[in-house]
Amino acid sequence: MNSVLVLIIAFAVAIVGYYRYARYIDRKVMMSDPKRTTPANMYMDGVEFMPTSKNVLFGYQFKSIAGAGPIIGPIIAIQWGWAPALLWILLGSFFIGWVQDYSSAMIAMRNEGASLGGLSYRLISPRARLILLSFMYFYLLLIAGAFGNVVVSTATGLKSAPMAWLFLTLAGLLAGQMIYKWKKDIVLTTVVTVLIAMSGIYLGTLAPSDSILGTALANNRVLWAIVALVFCYFAAVLPIWRLALPMNYVASYIVFLGLLFGIIGILLSRPDFTLPAVTDFSIKIGPIWPIMFVTIACGAISGWHSIVSSSGTARQLENEIDARPVGAGVMFVEMILAVFALIIAGTIYASPTEYGAAIAKGPGVVFAAGVAKLLNVLGLPLDLGRSYGSVMMIVLAITIMQLVIRFMRVATSEILGDVSPVFKNLHFGTIVASLLTAALVLTGWWQYLWVLFGGANQLMASLALMLATIWLISEGRATAWIFYPMIFMFVTTVAALLYTSYSLLSKVFSGAVQGEALIGNTLMGVVAVFLVIAALVLAWEGQKAFARFRSLRAGSSVA
Questions:
Q1: Mean pLDDT of all residues belonging to the chain
Q2: 432: which residues sit within 8 A by CB, 6+ positions away?
Q3: Domain range enclosing 197
């Protein structure tokens, strides 16, 4: 199949999903009201609650949810064939992805900006809140460790990346100052700060880190792990308008422009898919169902989005009607990014053997090579194009990592805040989260835990959909549009975790692994079992809440 046809289908799905399906739900079911006061206006504190223009928030939401996931997932999943991967990206986004992102933001706004932990306390039970928050903390730690490794590996592997990172940070700080303090025009602010960020990519090729720091320091993983965590510390403790929000806004343009010109490159070169449409039902990674559905998370449906939408975006929306373009609209853009990554993986290699050799070096290598090839169609040198693609990866990773540390700090306060006031201290919670992340990145344990990330991520999605379903029942609103996606995600995720646990522990009991692999497989297997148990307990608590609210609604109807 030709890649241009795939792009046309993807854009058609996005347009119909946003302008028909999402608009209907927004107007007829959720009934967004521009006159209702949002938490951002109600509790404006300049730290977590900050009324923000939907134009700025669109970029913030995109860069907050679009980490390396929508790139890595499709590039790995194409091993089952590009057709099943494409179908899951399109159908997952249309029926589940935007549903979760949008509903998470809306129910959080309707509950005074409450986090998922607070919502579980109100809608289900105190025990559900504790279990969910504990699960979320571990889940966030998995994300921080995984993306922390992407940042460190990219900083050491691509010597132009640190300069690009530095200039992006400066551009983000300047954008926050221009928007919120100097009250400058958003167009002027965007042009100035994006040009600064882009200049960092170019200067990085002229002044790579090894020429400034020396080879030893430039390749030192400990150094870059410390730099990343110090950066995340300040991003987590500073008011959100100062760094996290504006930097993600500026970073979104690096990704948007790379995506835009990459798509133009596809339209001009019109490459055909060279890899098979379908390979085997079960490959080395596992069977298509359920493993492919957790391998491709971001780009189709991702639990991380629910945390961003509820704990971040819902506290910044200045108008309820902005929830659809920010929540639903951004998800469809991320879907296009996932399709873009799938096209790269499926078209730039002549054979599965050539693809296999490239994927063995990492999905980032595949993506950077594809971006370079497509931008070269527009006249950009291959080396600069490869640098741009690699910088896109570090931008996608670091902007997610700093938000994860912020949310871990909030989770620490919610879980242990009643035990001791020290856990409510933003500096203490941030430092603890940073040290735990450093342990995963520097010891290498993140590699053993990465396999659980997909399952934990999609489990988080099913739990977020469950909370939204319970809220809809409590309000007496239609639930089918969110209830059935929740059931599908829950069953699929539990099956994936059970499969993962069985695969890992069977190697342990059979004696197939020894030494460090034995410890890693045992740890991963046990954690997978724990996640399944936590999911089943939360599902049991959730179904009791379903029954309770249905009974109350029935009683009020009779009365």
A1: 87
A2: 412
A3: 3-558
